[in-house]
Structures
1.
Amino acid sequence: MSNDRDTTTGEEKPITPRDRNISFERETNFAVPYSRENINRCRCPQCPVQADSKCVKDKLDNLKKEMDILPADEVPEPDDVPGAYCSTGRAVCKDLNPGRQCICNTCDVWKEYLLENGKPSQYFCQNGPAT
Ligand code: SF4
Ligand code: SF4
C-alpha cells in the first residue's frame, strides 16, 4: 500500500532516516586511512607490546591466509587485524603488555601522517586512534 497522499499538505516533513547503519562510511573518516597499504606498512606485528600475545599470534596466522585470498582492493575486518590501531582504535586482544616500548615511531605510516603531533601519538592499541 502507498501512503504518498499525505505529502500534499506540505506540513508533515518526511522522516529522515538515521545513518547509524552506515558504519562503513565512518571508517573512511579516520585520520589515518584504513587501507591495505597501511596495514602492510604497520609495525605492530613486530612490537614488543604484542610479542607474547596468543590472541595476536592467532590473528596474525589467520590474517596471512585471509590476505592471500582477499581481492587486492579489499581490506580485512578491522577486528581481524592486530595492528593499524592508529586508524581503527584499541586492540581487540586483551593480553598485550603496554609496559613495553611502543615502536610506532619506527613506522612509515606514523611518519607520513605526522602522528607525533596526534592525540594520542603512540600506544594506539591502548589509547585509541590518532585524531
Ligand atoms: S603508526 Fe603504529 S599503529 Fe599505526 S600503522 Fe604504524 S605501527 Fe601500526
Ligand atoms: S600501537 Fe604501538 S604499542 Fe601498540 S602494538 Fe602498535 S607499535 Fe605496539
2.
Amino acid sequence: MREPPRPRFQPDLVRGGDRQALNAAFTLQAKEFDLAFRCPECAYRTAAGQCTVGWPNEALMAEPLEVIGADLIPAFCKAFEPDAP
Ligand code: SF4
C-alpha cells in the first residue's frame, strides 16, 4: 500500500518519528549551537510578541519550544531576521 502524499517541505527526519523525541532532540541541538530562529530573537516581532509582517507565529513563540507540531510539520519562518546584537 502506498503512503499518502506529504507536503514537499516535510523532511524525511520527521516521517514516522516520535514527535516528543524529535522535539527534545531539536531543543538540545538548538541550545548547543545557539540557534536563533524564533520570534523572540527576530527583528520583526513587536514588544508584545506579534509579527509585524503578519505571519501566524504562535508556534514560534510557544514555550516550551515545539518545532514539530501535531501535524508533524516543522515550524520555521523564512522571513526571520535576527535582532541587532
Ligand atoms: S518574521 Fe517570522 S520569526 Fe519574525 S516575528 Fe514574524 S513569524 Fe516570527
